[in-house]
Write a structure and sequence with these properties.
alpha/beta; 5-stranded mixed sheet
Amino acid sequence: MQKLVSSLLFGAAILFSIAAQAQPVERLIKVIVGTDHDNWTYRAGENVNFSVSVFRNGNLLKDVRVRYEIGPEKMPATKKETTTLKTGTTTLPGGSLSKPGFLRCVVIAEVEGKEYRGLATAGIDPDKIQPAVENPSDFLSFWETAKTELTQIPLDAKMTLLPERCTEKVNVYHVNIQNFRIGSRIYGILCVPKKEGKYPAILRVPGAGARPYAGDVRTAEKGVITLEIGIHGIPVTMDVSVYNDMMASSLSGYWTNNLDDRDRYYYKRVYLGCVRANDFLVSLPQYDGSNLAVTGGSQGGALSIVTAALDSRVKWAAPIYPALSDMVGYLQGRAGGWPHIFDSNNPQNNTPAKIKAAAYYDVVNFAKQLKVPCLYSMGFNDETCPPTSMWAVYNAITAPKELKLYLETGHWTFPEENEAVTNWLLGKLGK
């Protein structure tokens, strides 16, 4: 009974973690913001008009007071006003941008003492957005040297069966393998089809933070080996409170740890850890020897691109709203990617050493190296990974690429988006 309770509690924690990144919860008052172009896309210099409607119970809410801000995303607003919507709807002139970027309108309605928020973001020639980050002349040699050093470290893989998580068709393991130096580990949940045979594999790389993982059992049941990893060198089966405590202490702000040194920056072990996870996957006797894909969202979107660029064994990548993209955009007066280390709130990071080191880890520079097909998915309303930064990456990809736009999504995904990504991966893997 105790094992059952523990299993149920773990499952609830995982579901909560997933829900926290899923489609926003419905609210009583809905503030709907759109643009006068169905595709939310404009040319430089073209005027943008934002439509605003406030609903309750499916009907326009009359005489509702709203305040709104319009301006380039993540930058100070160029227009701030308060007005009353007599009929519950109006059109706001948003102005224009003279160069490629994104213009955002945020509207907050005040109803019975509570605030309700909505937004829309217009893309201005997004396919012309160019990266702000520089590409170091020794970028490729730096990472080739790092990968060569990684090959000298024994894999030393350890697998522990998790009987309570296994299904009729899939065995589930907690695994840990040696990372980029002796004693450094990377942990994950491995799911392997029970039926004898050879199978393709998917590496699932994580979003930011720290949490337990359940593994991708559902995909494994379709005949695919899956490995879902954490990045912090700690087991991924502990109680969620342990990770919360670590994020408040030892892992707080890990994304800037040793940022001034390209050889000691936190993400070096993370990027190499993704390659090492593939070392483990391709070593499995059940692996089919040729079909390997990688996917993830946010930080995981970044790691998807990085892994596919560093590891030629990867045949397909499906990044969703990638972070760590064109991070120095802020230093050129426009939005930069998560974790926003160079925005106006972090002046301490605006140093030559940190700017130089960050370039070796910026997803833009990995995107330029991609040689495999990529399914790229994102939305215009993302306030965590600004679309300016994500388009800078997308435009840098010269490999075969497909773009799935879900305009109104922020830092979350529709079920249909998740389904499209999964179906694309399974199709490439022959499933």
